[in-house]
Amino acid sequence: MSFPQITTLTSYSLLQSTIQIPDYVKLAKELGYQILGLTDCNNLYGALEFVETCQKEQVKPILGLYLHYQSLS
Q1: 57 membership: H or E segment, kind and range
Q2: What is the DSSP annotation of 16-50?
Q3: How many CB atoms lie within 10 A of CB 65?
Q4: Of 71, 66, 51, nearest to 16 (Cα)?
Q5: Residue 26 class from Cβ within 10 Å (0-12 exposed, 13-18 middle, 19+ buried)?
Q6: pLDDT recorded at residue 59
Q7: Coil, strand, or helix at residue 64?
Q8: Each residue's pLDDT tens digit in the chain (73 positions)?
Q9: Are 19 and 11 in contact (CB under 8 A)?
Q10: Per-residue pLDDT at 2
């Protein structure tokens, strides 16, 4: 693929996705992705699993975070 998917939510984004990291990385590898991103919402709990799975599949991982915040002013 000529461009990576970088805004994918996984099951670590509670109630927003059912994508499991091993399945996501495996499918991306089958489709020819060399770079793959993960952008979960309000947490980075899946970051270690994602990086380790990508390294195992020889895919370069990119980590992101979609953060909701509220100003107190």
Answers
A1: helix 47-57
A2: T----HHHHHHHHHHTT-SEEEEEEES--TTHHHH
A3: 12
A4: 66
A5: middle
A6: 95
A7: strand
A8: 567 788 899 999 988 899 999 999 999 999 999 999 999 999 999 999 999 999 999 999 999 998 988 888 7
A9: yes
A10: 66
